[in-house]
Amino acid sequence: QLQLIESGGGLVQPGGSLRLSCQASGRFVGTRFAMGWFRQALGKEREFVATISWTGENTGHADSVSGRFKISKDNTKNILYLQMNSLQPEDTAVYFCAARAPLESGSSLKEVDYHYWGQGTQVTVSS
Asked: What separation in angstroms does the CA of 126 have from each of 9, 53, 114?
């Protein structure tokens, strides 16, 4: 119904930047749904990073990334972005794109509110 494919991960030095992308496709791609980014570091639980409403008017970021990361989306291309600046080693994780169910257009910080998930893209911050 909805497929999500992340890209843009890689190895970056501390203080560097990356931009993650998430391409949405499938039968539900034209419906209104909010999206988000989560991440999971090795040996840790998956955690919330950022969320954005369908219209893009409402966004939310975890305290740990606020001021450094910025979520955005292009509904004409069905792409979700995460601009990551001033990356630190503690940002190393697999980053997942997620989408809420069709018509659930409001942003959410809760992992349980998301129905569709990508496979993840690895981000490694190391010198």
From this structure: 13, 32, 30
3-state secondary structure (DSSP) of residue 28:
coil
Are 99 and 53 spatial neighbours (Cβ–Cβ below 8 Å)? Answer: no
Residues 51 and 71: beta-carbon distance below 8 Å: yes
Mind listing the pLDDT tens digit for each residue in 63-76? 999 999 999 999 99
Distance between CA atoms of residues 124 and 94, nearest Å = 8
Partners of 30 in beta bridges: none
For the stretch 54-109, pLDDT in tens is: 999 999 999 999 999 999 999 999 999 999 999 999 999 999 999 999 888 899 99
What Å distances lie between residue 124 and 17, 19, 88, CA to CA?
11, 13, 9
- C-beta neighbour count of 36 within 10 angstroms: 27
Residue reference for tokens 């190391």:
126
